[in-house]
Amino acid sequence: MKFEAVTIKDIAKALGISTSTVSRALRDSYEISPETKQLVLDCAEKLNYRPNPIALSLKEKRSRSIGVVVCEIANSFFSQIINGIESISYDRGYNVIISQSHESYEREVMDLRYLASRSVDGLLISVSTETNDISHLKALHEKGLPIVFFDRITEEINTHSVIVDNFKGAYEATEHLVQNGYKRIAAIANSEFLSITTERLAGYREALLSNGLPPDDAYIKHCFYGGMIFSEIEEAVNRLFTLKQKPDAIVTMADKLTSGCLKTLKRRGLTVPDDIALVGFSNSDIAELISPPLTVVRQPAYEIGRDATELLLQLIESKRPVKQFEKRTLTPELQVRESSFPKK
Question: What is the annotated signal peptide range for this record (predicted)?
Fold first, then answer.
């Protein structure tokens, strides 16, 4: 059976009045008496009537919806960002349409086509690892679609963005390991094309230099898909252990990289931190429950989503063209646990 939504015709038929009277009553028109308005509202509630969002969007020239594109909802970092987005948007009367790129440029393009076809009022996006060409985003932006970037951003479009202080997070993680006696500190990062990778590796290198340890590119490994494919993490870790001077600590620079690295180390029969220390970027609540509890750089993901939504709604609801844009940088927190205890 095909679902058919209740319409104003159904209300009019139930009350024995015209559809135009029902329509005006629902709009709270002065032409309709308070008694009739109440009858219409009571009937609408009884029949579970809801206004047609498509019809409303045509009338108001606004869909009251926001598009969101992330690489993966199952990633705890992005799921927390989405919670932050929804905490603002629903209170302000906007629905949220979420799409996943799965780190694919083609999927990202398809997601944006779909969202554009739904006439979303604005877009929140963290670009995929494969996205080097942003012409699809530029085209939408030039047509007037408000866009705000978060986490993985691009400087090629002049708009708001919300990021974490990636340099600070990686610097503190690396310096913490140095201060605990580790000297051969490796780094496993996302694709080198991503903004987060550039910033985090810069912090990692600067922490080594500041503590008299020259960075060695042999200790830096990239996982193009950021750990979504376990085999690429496993290969990166295994390649580190082919070096003549094997690492005594690893900094992993994303959620999936952290969990995948720990899994690989355990498969190799290595004990953390006795054989090798580990510090990772992670927003997973499991980090403190596993053995050993993980030292992590925790990002304010909920706040990222909230702030990005506030900035997007400013663009959507502004009566005048916005010409001044903000790059908002939030502060991560290093949470120290057993996986980085002082070297024995």
Answer: none
What stretches of the chain adopt beta strand conformation (E)? 65-70, 95-100, 122-125, 147-150, 161-164, 185-189, 220-222, 249-252, 277-281, 295-298, 327-330, 333-335
Beta bridge partners of 95: 65
Domains and CATH numbers, the chain: 8-51 (1.10.260.40), 64-163+301-330 (3.40.50.2300), 166-299+334-340 (3.40.50.2300)
- The encoded tokens of residue 263 equal 């899994």
- In this structure, the chain runs to a length of 344
pLDDT tens-digit readout, 47-71: 887 766 545 444 555 678 999 999 9
Rg (CA), the chain: 26
Kindly report, residue by residue over 208-223, the tens digit of the pLDDT. Answer: 999 999 999 999 999 9
Strand order in the sheet with 65-70: 95-100, 65-70, 122-125, 147-150, 161-164, 327-330
Taking the whole predicted model, whether its pTM rises above 0.85 is answered as no
